[in-house]
User: What shape does this take?
Amino acid sequence: MLFVPLPFVVALLLLLLLLAMLRRDDGMATNRPFLVLLALCCVQSVLVGLRWGYDLPVVGRLTLALATIMPSLVVAGVMHLGAAGPRRWSERIGLYGFPPAIIALLIIIWPEAIDIAMILIYLGYASALLWLMRAGPDVLPLASFETAQPTHRAFVFAAATLSFSAGIDALVMFDFEWTQGAHVGKILSIANLLGLFMLGMAAAAASRNSTVRDIVDVAPVPDTAEDAETITRIEALMGEKKLYRDANLNLERLARRAGIPSRRISGAINRRMAKNVSQYVNDYRIAEACRLLVETDRPVTEVMLEAGFQTKSNFNREFRRVTDMTPVAWREKCAYPSG
Assistant: This one.
């Protein structure tokens, strides 16, 4: 009977996911670092299957080479969505080239330190990613408001996955020390099955954004009068211009329409409304959806699109967050009250 290692199955699933992302035609620009990451996850899973399923140690070096690239691609994907990070080319080259350069140097002068170096690299990039994400979804001004929160969670999830990979590397290193690698095959098969699939799913969740342009903002000033002026201007855009109906609206686009730096908008809403900008805009969308559900007989999907949402999952999640019920339940309760 033909033996098919589990990592091959994961690779097939990741390939299908990658093809689906490439064929998606929703008018949004591609987040290339994360699509590359998704492709590398697929290749890496195949290599793991060859190495431990068919006992081909020759692929080990290639597996190591790919592993050094993945952490920097995760951070690059975050910056692609507008998060603060290296802007100069020299800094970006360092971001991409530091892990491979360190590992290449260690292969030449100190091979025994490679395992420890990989653990430290993955933990370092995971820490950097969590630091970038510390302020919540508003650190991703190029992500649409509908997808900002899931994308933010995907990045945090990716950081956790990098930490998980570092832990597995440490476990393998200790297994070689204590049992001469007797359990490495099982450890890596299970770990890569879980770790690569998790990282691939995180990549898919954040693989789209609405533009690829860089942003330069000024730092927010915690001034009460300035906050009030900012909120007034944003409320005018939402109430009079119905800007929330734009499904691709993001923090950068809102800042351009308001003529206010995006960090100032984010800071004002955070301080005055105790919520992030994504939640603030989605509150307007849900209010519009509630009105349409009560005043019209239009289908829920049509109401969803009219209010500015593109996917049912995001619409239902935000609707429940605001009203604590489903759209259908809201219509039944408010449009047709009992008695």
DSSP finds 14 helices and two strands in the chain. The domain at 224-334 is CATH 1.10.10.60 (Arc Repressor Mutant, subunit A).
